[in-house]
Amino acid sequence: MGLKCLIRNNDAVVGIVTTVMLIGLLVTVLAIVNTLYVPNWIEEEEAKHMEAVSNQFANLKFALDIQSLVDDPTSISTSITLARNEIPIFDTQRSAGELNILSNSSSMDIKGNTSINSKFINSSAIIYSSKNTYFVNQNYVYEMGTFILSQEDSNVVIGKPSIFIVEPRYMYDINISITVVNISGVGSKNFAAGFGTYPIYTQVVNNSNPIIIENCSNITIYTTYTNTWYTVFNETLRYYGSKDTDYEIDESNNMVKVEFISPILKYNVFVKEVKIAAQIAWGLVE
After folding, report:
1. pLDDT value at residue 13
2. 129 and 230 in contact (C-beta within 8 Å)?
3. Which residues of the chain have pLDDT under 50?
4. 233 within 8 A of 225, measured Cβ to Cβ
5. Phi, psi at residue 162, to the nearest 5°?
6. Which residues pair with 149 in a beta bridge?
7. CA–CA distances in Å: residue 160 to residues 71, 108, 137, 229
């Protein structure tokens, strides 16, 4: 009877164990990367995207400022990028953004010494709202010529509107020049959300000559961004030498009111309204 020799072969077992250990190591590494590094990468990308959108809104304000100066029905296109770049493999929760032309979101009421001697302007705003995963969410807003950064309950002015003091005609006159860019949405093309880069087409509809509100008693701004408009008027008036005793600024819920209270000085407001149609679309403003 022949002898049978049994040989134990552990190569297959070793291979399986090695594969399991490599998979476990890979899973551990991926878990560490996702936990410690990916959030930082995403936050950094979102911060870069916010900076890019800020620059794009600065370009939008520049374009609208140029349109408000040119007495011609010009049409300009500027673009806003809604979301940040993807991070390959690791990016499972890509953030997005929203772009909106919000109808009748703000207004300016300038009153003189009579009911006839007044001006009321109602305007829409162009708003970008981020939907970030890690970086703080922000709104970039263009409202009546002003570029605003808004975070939660606070807001600051990034680009000032065209409000300044001009040379007085008489010794006790204070002349204030205000150019109000009155945005109005076109049709239903006023909203975009998600990803991609969207153009905003703006076209001058009416660029009227300034009107004079003599002996202005008050200017009231109805807005969500009260701190911004308080800063705009307070810095403008103080820069040109007006004293606290000459005016009062009241900041309350959704309203900023500037009252001219000097018994000697006479405040005259030269207000120019520029009506501009805007739309978010792939095409020309209709």
Report:
1. 59
2. no
3. 1, 6, 283-286
4. no
5. -85, 80
6. 140, 156
7. 21, 16, 22, 9
| Cβ neighbour number for residue 90 with a 10 Å cutoff | 15
φ/ψ region of 255 (left if φ > 0, alpha if ψ in -120 to 50, else beta) reads beta
Q: 104 — phi, psi (to 5°)?
A: 50, 50
The whole-model pTM stands at 0.83
6 C-beta neighbours (distance < 10 Å), count? 4
Residue 82: name the closest of 192, 195, 200 by CA.
Answer: 195
The encoded tokens of residue 67 equal 């349109």
| pLDDT on residue 272 | 95
b/e for 125-137, b at 16 or more Cβ within 10 A? bbbbbbebbbbeb
Give yes or no for a contact between 118 and 213, defined as CB atoms under 8 angstroms apart. yes
Round to whole Å and give the CA distance between 201 and 203. Answer: 7
